[in-house]
Amino acid sequence: MSIDVKRHPDSASTSWFRKGRLGFPALLGVVIGFAAWLSLTPEPSLPAIGEYPEFNSVESLAEASGAVLLVEAGAVIDSFVDGPPLADGGIAMVMRQVRVIEALQGDAGADEVIGVATMDDGAYDLPRSVQLSQGERLVLFLKEVKSSSTEFDGISRTFITVSSDNGIFDVRGLSAIARSPVVAGLQQAEALAAIARRTGELPTAELFRVEIADLRAALDKATG
Question: E strands along 38-197, which residues?
Answer without folding.
Answer: 67-82, 91-105, 113-119, 124-125, 137-145, 158-161, 168-172, 175-178
